[in-house]
Amino acid sequence: DWNRTWYTANPDLTQCFQNTVLVWVPCVYLWLLVPFYCVHLYCHDRGRIQMSCLCTVKMVLGFLLASFGFVEFFYILLERSQDIEHHMVFLLSPIMRSITVILALCIIQLERIRGCRSSVFLFLFWVLSVVCSLVPLRAKIQLAIDEGIASDIVRYLAFFSYFSIQLAQLFLCCFADQPPQGKPILEKNPCPIEDASFLSKILFWWFTGLVVKGYRTPLEAEDLWTLREEDTSHKIISDLQQDWTAECAKLQKQQKALASGATLGSRLPDQAQLFRKLQKEQSSGFFLLRTLARKFGPYFLTGTLCILFHDAFMFAIPQVLSLLLAFMRDGDAPLWKGYFYATLMFLLSCLQSLFNHQYMYTCFTVGMRVKTAVMGLVYRKSLVVNSSARRTCTVGEIVNLVSADTQKLMDFVVYFNAVWLAPIEIALCLFFLWQHLGPSALAGIATVILIFPLNGFIAKKRSKLQEIQMKFMDGRIRLMNEILNGIKILKFYAWEKAFLEQVLGYREKELKALKKSQILYSISIASFNSSSFL
């Protein structure tokens, strides 16, 4: 009923809505997603957790919540027997709530058996439950103020106790349980993210200790935490090496099958085309990219999901701001709408920041793992490469692969989503600008379009300068390798100065190209930052 909910100075939801939708939303969420969550727990067994005080308190409070529903059900039955009419929904809702709470208790025990120390699934369930209970809570408080609490003291006390226990369950979900039994602690200074709860992870609260310690005293190497097992080079490289070996074996099998099927002078056109395609994909690094995507793709996709939510909230904030400005222009608008819009803007900004930082954390973690994996593969390959292949590449090129090119891969992972998201964001911005400004928005569009060719030219120029810089770097490293190999002869003939001048010459040319590239980069950044102002 919009006249009662929105177009009024004292908004409220109908009793029908409060006793159906607000009760059913958390229940439907839990029942719909619990099969998928059980499959997830079944596939990720981390060991059994012993019954702790935290788990015991959760179970006791859960049984209390379930008992409230059953007591309310029998209380309504008692009133119906005394000819007090109640709709059937008043009977169904408490039972549905209680059965759902019992299901949540079963999930708590299943998580304990499978070693899940902090539950995102149940945290969201309790958040939904508390949020959906806020409207009835406000209605109960308003009714108690108007009519007095003595009019129906049993229902008031029951509801306030139920809401308090829900808040307590939500509070307990903010903490992580103890580690699974039998799990050895091998690290001297383990990373606290292992013991952090879901809320601590999304707010980066686990990192606070190091910040406080760095504020009080200068940090030393001993203060830093040891890497998690999934971030260690041994784990990353060994896992990727296994996948890469399987990919190479599959490729060799395909090539042998094509070669064996081709007789002298009678190769089929389709086979020849497929063979050329395989050679092209192998030379372009397609198979390596596919292996990396299979290994690190799922975690990267969670970051992509975060940036989609971030963009949705980013575009929602200006729309809410427009509504707030319209409220300020309307002198007859009720005051509560202003508070509602301001609170909504604050919550959207908080969620936007939260998802943005989760995206950056995820992408930098994936980028670091990709960089570590490729560096390990290149290093292992350099140890076993045969003499004929060694002639095709110098030590300088291998060093460049490990130092410069792997960093490019990391940057690619971090900024890849901008390639397809930027056009969508620009289109949406221009659409909203056109709605607000009309034809005047074309001036801003023209400014952006004029800046595009400048950035394109700078990017192309920087790419050429980078090739030149890499060429000089290869030459310098090759020369340094020759100097170190023949250092005795160099010292014997006193050629240090001559070779030093050659090395410095390469270095000077390299620095000159790097300086030009950085100047162009500064111009590009300046034009990018000034484009929104212009």
Automatic annotation (TrEMBL):
Organism: Ameca splendens
Origin superkingdom: Eukaryota
Cited PANTHER family: ATP-BINDING CASSETTE SUB-FAMILY C, ATP-BINDING CASSETTE SUB-FAMILY C MEMBER 6
Family, per entry: Belongs to the ABC transporter superfamily. ABCC family. Conjugate transporter (TC 3.A.1.208) subfamily.
Membrane protein topology class: Multi-pass membrane protein
Localisation per UniProt entry: Membrane
Keyword Lipoprotein: no
Lineage of producing organism: Eukaryota, Metazoa, Chordata, Craniata, Vertebrata
Keyword DNA damage attributed: no
Name this polypeptide is given: ABC transmembrane type-1 domain-containing protein
Residue ranges that the Swiss-Prot or TrEMBL entry lists as coiled coil: none
Keywords: ATP-binding, Membrane, Nucleotide-binding, Transmembrane, Transmembrane helix, Transport
Pfam families in the record: ABC_membrane (PF00664), TMD0_ABC (PF24357)
Record domain ABC transmembrane type-1: where: 301-534
Residue intervals passing through the bilayer: 21-43, 55-77, 89-108, 120-141, 153-176, 299-326, 338-355, 412-434, 440-459
